[in-house]
Amino acid sequence: MKTKAKLSVFLFAVLIALTSCGTGASSSPEKVPASSSSSAAFRADSSSALPQEALPSVFASFFQRQWPAVEGAADAMALPEGTVFFADLDGDGTPELFLTYSTGGGKQTGLLAYNVSGETPKELGSAYLAVAPLGSQLEFSLWEEGGQRVLYTQGELPVGAADPTHYHIESFLSLSDGRLVLAELNYSETEGRSPVYYRTPQSSETVSAAEYEALRCALLPGGEPLETIDAGEPLDFLEDLPAFETAVREAWERWTQGHG
Question: Where is the signal peptide (predicted)?
């Protein structure tokens, strides 16, 4: 089962700096600005699309019906608590909607992806990611090269306080044939020792730093990220539906302000 990891701003910046997979056509990182009450109105791209002004309430109702089918939801091992954000992962100019949620066990972060450009929302898939540091949340960035886009995050496998080793997980999300695809890499760090790099998160086979970077370059486009993503504040998606609708609306406004 895939593990989720704890994201540190420092490690994220270091990993970005270490990216040396060639020069892409990507622009410099752009922080999506916070929403405001005067942000642009929602847009409808076609007559068959869900009117964007209706998206928050429609999606909130849709998700309320869909949540019981999420793995672990029925026995409360998955909790509808997390963040909501938009990212254009397929590069067609219309963003997908993403939700993070708690798996309840504290060892993984669930992620759900939806296409909301049609008349009704459509799930694109799910994934298990890293966990964030206590009191913080995962950070995401969007990368592109040669028309291929990747949504990236990085975190750490939770271990006991007595364990001096930190196990880092890098997650690379993309869309293939309309479905969400997850690839992962991992490495470990122990104070006073050199990092240990692994070929896959599921095996103990180690590789050199150069081999690990080659594996990483095959998954993450070169250059710099198109943007870092403001995932908003965590909330309970089902406890307060008006608050959930507001979160979806504000997430859309953040995206449109950054891509107007």
Answer: 1-25
